């Protein structure tokens, strides 16, 4: 149980994100405790990916503030004031955050091993031998110890996504963002990847922010589920409550639609 | 007009010397075009105000004026205007190299644009520094895809070296002409020169076509 006085691992304070005149997030406020597993659900286009991209610093907030572990992420201190973060500041905070993408986004020009070692060597300053050892341990963890020297194109989607997970973990992030990481997989490969993520969530103290349409998975591993609609959280509850007894009509409709589809 | 085998054979050494010059200009010009083109593409991508517009104008200017004019300008105008005096050979390499850099920069741009956005985002999510993203992720994917197009430009450069006649570079064609001048016979020398072009260009273009089949198109 997290203490109320501990700083949250992630804090969104009135975050607004617009693309042109399309307001995607309209005053999003939320705290995520260290080690918490938070799942975002909601219809397509409701702004879930945008939230992850803001945390990953792939997008900038239009207004409001995001903090990581008590220090500003979207902003920085300068002359006693909070000003929008510059690239240098972002580069500094970014190392604490990792992301796994729907389309894996492995580097096709590198072997599996090099995909995993590149950032630890170039960013964290590990020696190649240290990075190698870390990568091989992670490949063990994701069940691909024998694929270290393959190129990603030779792997199945499920295997590629496992490598992407290992690649993100190699940076030892405090926060791991998962954006529909099984949506691009063949159905028979989904369970394996979700099982792996559940295992990682159980055995590490990483804070997870996860977007998924796999409601069974969300129910099993989440500490909290946020239901999104039109850039706002309309329901925020533990999974056992949200899935069995949704308070909002929109949540009920959405859950029915998702269950009906699968 | 008859074919004089003896004369043809006697001309060959001189023509081969010209071929050597042509190859040197082609190789050095390609190196200039490949590296400068990449620099142009990267600078333009950085969108630095003023620099970007100036470079755009320069590239458009070079692409819309004849190479021959550029060669003349470089050889005859630059020395008096800026006090830069270069040999005809060096002028030729620079003129051809810079001219083609304005085309290869476009090729590089397309190759870089063809790398999926997800690659940039994954690299950013791993905190890789900008330079490292270019050298480890983007260019290793972009460059192989543009090799066939670069190869085609090298073949074009090879075929355009005779333009340097205008400033007195003794390339393959000009060497042939010189060999012919001595006895006012040109059939043999130009035939040999043409055959040499064919002998080199054709296999080169086959090679490029094989390369094209091996890499993903941009
Ligand atoms: N880079 C962008 N430029 C313009 N609009 C965007 C951009 N990214 C997302 N959007 C818009 O933001 C809204 C929310 O998108 P997204 O966060 O991807 O939703 P979700 O992940 O919930 O499906 C959509 O209307 C989408 O069109
Ligand atoms: Mg999405």
Automatic annotation (TrEMBL), chain B:
Primary localisation category: membrane
Membrane topology label: Multi-pass membrane protein
UniProt-annotated location(s): Cell membrane
Keyword Ribosomal protein listed: no
Protein origin, superkingdom: Bacteria
InterPro entries: AA_ABC_transptr_permease_3TM (IPR010065), ArtM/GltK/GlnP/TcyL/YhdX-like (IPR043429), Ectoine_EhuD (IPR014341), MetI-like (IPR000515), MetI-like_sf (IPR035906)
Pfam families: BPD_transp_1 (PF00528)
Transmembrane regions listed in the UniProt entry: 20-43, 55-78, 84-103, 186-208
Keywords (A to Z) from UniProt: Amino-acid transport, Cell membrane, Membrane, Transmembrane, Transmembrane helix, Transport
Positions of the ABC transmembrane type-1 domain: 19-208
Family from the record: Belongs to the binding-protein-dependent transport system permease family.
Protein name: Ectoine/hydroxyectoine ABC transporter permease subunit EhuD
Species of the source: Actinokineospora xionganensis
């Amino acid at each position: 149980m997290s203490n109320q006085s501990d700083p949250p691992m992630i804090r969104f304070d009135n975050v607004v994100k617009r693309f042109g005149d399309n307001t995607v997030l309209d005053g999003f406020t939320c705290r995520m405790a260290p080690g918490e597993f938070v799942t975002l659900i909601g219809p397509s286009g409701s702004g879930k990916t945008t939230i992850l991209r803001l945390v990953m610093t792939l997008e900038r907030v239009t207004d409001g503030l995001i903090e990581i572990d008590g220090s500003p992420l979207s902003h920085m201190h300068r002359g006693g004031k909070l000003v929008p973060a510059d690239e240098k500041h972002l580069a500094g905070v970014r190392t604490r955050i990792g992301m796994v993408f729907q389309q894996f986004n492995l580097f096709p020009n590198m072997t599996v091993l090099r995909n995993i070692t590149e950032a630890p060597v170039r960013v964290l300053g590990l020696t190649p031998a240290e990075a190698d050892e870390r990568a091989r341990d992670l490949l063990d963890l994701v069940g691909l110890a024998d694929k270290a020297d393959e190129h990603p194109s030779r792997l199945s989607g499920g295997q590629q996504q496992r490598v992407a997970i290992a690649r993100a973990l190699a940076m030892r992030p405090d926060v791991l963002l998962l954006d529909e990481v099984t949506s691009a997989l063949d159905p028979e490969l989904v369970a394996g990847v979700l099982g792996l993520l559940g295992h990682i969530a159980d055995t590490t103290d990483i804070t997870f922010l996860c977007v998924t349409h796999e409601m069974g998975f969300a129910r099993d591993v989440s500490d909290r589920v946020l239901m999104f609609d039109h850039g706002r959280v309309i329901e925020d509850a533990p999974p056992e409550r949200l899935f069995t007894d949704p308070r909002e009509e929109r949540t009920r409709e959405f859950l029915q639609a998702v269950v009906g589809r699968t | 007009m008859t074919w004089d085998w003896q004369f043809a054979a006697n001309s060959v050494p001189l023509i081969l010397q010209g071929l050597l010059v042509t190859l040197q200009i082609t190789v050095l010009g390609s190196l200039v075009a490949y590296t400068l083109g990449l620099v142009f593409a990267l600078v333009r991508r950085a969108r630095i105000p003023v620099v970007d517009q100036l470079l755009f104008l320069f590239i458009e200017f070079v692409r819309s004026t004849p190479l021959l004019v550029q060669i003349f300008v470089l050889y005859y105008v630059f020395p008096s205007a800026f006090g830069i005096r270069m040999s005809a050979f060096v002028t030729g390499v620079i003129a051809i190299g810079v001219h083609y850099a304005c085309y290869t920069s476009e090729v590089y741009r397309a190759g870089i644009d063809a790398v999926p956005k997800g690659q940039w985002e994954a690299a950013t999510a791993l905190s890789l520094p900008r330079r490292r993203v270019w050298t480890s992720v983007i260019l290793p994917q972009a460059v192989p895809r543009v090799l066939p197009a670069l190869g085609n430009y090298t073949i074009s450069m090879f075929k355009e070296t005779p333009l340097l006649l205008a400033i007195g570079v003794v390339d393959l064609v000009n060497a042939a002409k010189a060999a012919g001048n001595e006895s006012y016979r040109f059939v043999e020398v130009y035939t040999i020169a043409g055959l040499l072009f064919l002998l080199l260009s054709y296999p080169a273009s086959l090679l490029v076509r094989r390369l094209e089949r091996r890499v993903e198109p941009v």
